[in-house]
Amino acid sequence: MENKLTCIIIDDEKKDRENLRLLLNSYCPEITVLDEAHNKRTILSVLEKHSPDIVFFDIQLGNISIFDILNELKNIYFNIVFVSAYDKYAIKGYQYNAIDYLLKPVKSDRLKDVIKKINIIKNTLDREDTFKSDYKKLQSRYNQSSKISVTDSRGIHLLSPKEILYCMSDGNYTTLYLINDKKMVISKNLKHFENLLLDFNFFRIYRSYLINLHAIDFVLKEDGGSVVMKNGNALPISRTVKKEFFNKLRQVI
């Protein structure tokens, strides 16, 4: 068949990779699956080896977000299709011609619609500039528009992640330090918020502290290192994560 599209499937669950491959083979004969990957090492390897038209990205791979890996890529020339089992990742109202979102379990009709869309734009858009631009817009709008739900003694609150300066652990409770000198005590441990805020540029700098990287005022390097947040509070940086922290910080600045 002429003008066949090529793709790579990225997912940390083998059964989900197999299911998507089966759907593509059964319902999208114009697609050739070049390869699969399941973690950062294999992702970078297959992207270096191949030049796919489409990459199907699972959003959460173990403890890391696919956004972290995409930020490291110098050249995003392919169509990005996000695939996730969690509707909390859905970016409602922000779909682009070059990017789409599939909810697991993937439906054959939705998959065919996505492939049809990509097939059309493949011949009309400059891939490298357009997909890079659209991905950055997508990530920015995703981070700005989404809210999280938290429950304290007063009730349920909807918070924008950018309202949270940092989270402090206290056993099975977590204190959220918010803008305008507000605080909330939530009966969830810090790991819960680490997972909840995975895609919003939060980083666990210490056993007891999860911080919003956009809420840092400045970084002190003396005395082992610490960050001063926008509310003036200084928080320590663990030696074990210091290198990772500075790498992450360079990505979001």
UniProtKB/TrEMBL annotation:
Gene Ontology molecular function terms on file: DNA binding
InterPro entries: CheY-like_superfamily, LytR-like, LytTR_DNA-bd_dom, Sig_transdc_resp-reg_receiver
Segments forming domain HTH LytTR-type: 148-251
Residue(s) carrying 4-aspartylphosphate: D58
Response regulatory domain sequence ranges: 6-119
SMART domains named in the record: LytTR, REC
Pfam families (alphabetical): LytTR, Response_reg
Superkingdom as given in the UniProt entry: Bacteria
Sorted UniProt keywords: DNA-binding, Phosphoprotein
PANTHER family noted in UniProt: STAGE 0 SPORULATION PROTEIN A HOMOLOG, TRANSCRIPTIONAL REGULATOR-RELATED
Name the UniProt record assigns to this protein: LytTR family DNA-binding domain-containing protein
Organism, scientific name: Flavivirga amylovorans
